[in-house]
Fold RNase H type-1 domain-containing protein.
Amino acid sequence: MIIKLYTDAASVATHPKIAQIPSGAGILLVQNGHQYPFKQIVTAVDNHAAEFQAAIIGFEKAQKLSESEETVMFFTDSRLVADAVGKGVMKHYPDLTQKLLALQDSFPLVITQWIPDRQNMGAHRLALQALHQAH
């Protein structure tokens, strides 16, 4: 079986005097033709960190949904997250990268693909809904 995981984050502009900003995480899981939407408020230093957090939450949700050894097709519109997963390291977000990679290790195969924003609208809308709840 295959689980499709789409994640996205939405943040307000960062402010130099605010260390953490409320952001929205949107997660859309698709398994056996069923969609499982999730939205959550996260606190992050910037939108990149929020993108990592959305991916981490997405993989945590996928673990709970997974019935057996399932392949995950992971779709993100964040080049930074896709690059971090591909390289196995990210200089500016090492802790978030390691947490994400550790979660991915619980699946036999994870295929990560960067997609443009317009192909990630389900997760994007969920992230915006969470962001609006935060403000």
